[in-house]
Structure formats: structure tokens, C-alpha cells
Specification:
Bound molecules: (1S,2S)-2-nonylcyclopropanecarboxylic acid, fe (iii) ion
Strand content: under 5%
Length: 230
Amino acid sequence: MPQLEAIPAIDFQSETYKDAYSRINAIVIEGEQEAYDNYIKLGEMLPEHQENLARLAKMEMRHQKGFQSCGRNLAVTPDMEFAREFFSSLHQNFKDAAAEGKLVTCLLIQSLIIECFAIAAYNIYIPVADDFARKITEGVVKDEYLHLNFGEEWLKANFEASKGELEEANRQNLPIIWRMLNEVADDAHVLGMEKEALVEDFMIAYGEALSNIGFSTGDIMRMSVYGLTA
Ligand code: Y39
Ligand code: FE
Ligand code: FE
Ligand code: FE
């Protein structure tokens, strides 16, 4: 059902809501932690951008604190073990790529795929969030566009040399995002976020990013549905 048609009143204190929130809140807390770690690692791989990347990492740390306070505000204990498991495939792929010095793959995973996932999730969450979390999330999502922009700019400047690795990394990692979305769809629905809206927003953000980097419309269509039905 489309996100904006008849949003029922949400009881933020119901056990059902808080149970779902314990997993989604944990996912964003863990995601922000891993994003912090990833930008620190990217700074080591790109010494000429280290200062800027350290700034992005610091923002992720702030985001994490913000989302921790959202959980506390609802008296929810985040299920961090669930969240670590949720991110484990993507996390492993980033670590493997970093160990092999595959900078382009690392940028695709963190600065394109994960940032677009965050942008979609946060934009869809804002209209259905409690007042406290809405204000926090509005501040956070602005930063995520800056993070996405960093990846876009670097990959655009190095497009010809990166194209092949980007396609391969997309093929490896995009199906994981669709799996993650499926895994979280029921809990997201309890929070008033529809899977269809999340997919649509992700596709728009990711397609725009690929376009800004230099991919053709045909490339984008091929790449952005990769693994969608898997
Ligand atoms: O760059 C960032 O801050 C990204 C780490 C954060 C990812 C957040 C992932 C959100 C997925 C939530 C799914 C809810 C439906
Ligand atoms: Fe629905
Ligand atoms: Fe963030
Ligand atoms: Fe980010």
C-alpha cells in the first residue's frame, strides 16, 4: 500500500511498536558505527582525502548518538546482536575489499549503496517518526547526502578507471541490499514504512548517483535491478 494513503495513528508506546523498534533502531545504530569505521578505513586508503573523510566519520558517530537517544526516548533496548548479523555480509565484503586494496569497491559499498539505503530509510521514516526522532533524523539525512556526494565526486573523477570494478562490486553487493530490505520489511511496516516506498526511494537515489558518476541510462537500469528478485 502506498506510504501516504491513510497513515493510521501510530502508538509509539505499544509493545508491537517497541518490539519492531528494538531491531530497526539497532540496525541504524550498528549501521552508523560501521559507517564510522568504514570512513576511517577509507581515509587510510585515500590519504589526500583523510581529513575530509575523518570529518564524515565524525558525523556518523554523531548520528549514532542521536539514534541511541531515540531508542532511549521510547524506552527501547536496541537488539544489537540482530543488527550485527543484519549487516554481516556487507560488512565482510567491505573488509575483504579493503584488505585487497579495492578502494572502488569500498566506495561503492559505503558511499553509494549504504548511503542510498540510509537516505531512503530516513526519508521514509521522517513522516512517520515520533517528534523526537523526526527532528534527529531530519538533521542526519542532510549529512548522508554529503557522504553520498563524496563517493559520487571521487568516482566521477575516476570513472573510466573504476567502471569495471564498480559493475562487479554492484553485482556482488546490490543483491545483499535487497535481501536486507526483505529481512526488515515486516518491522519497517510496523513503524509505518512500506517496503515499496523504500525500494523506490533507494532506486531513485542510487540511479541518480550512478548517473552523476557517468553511467548511461541503460547501464543504470541493468545495474540497479541487479538481484532485485533474488
Ligand atoms: O551512512 C550511514 O550513516 C549509513 C549507516 C547508515 C545505514 C542505515 C541503514 C538504514 C537501514 C534501515 C532500514 C530500515 C527500514
Ligand atoms: Fe501496508
Ligand atoms: Fe550516518
Ligand atoms: Fe553516512
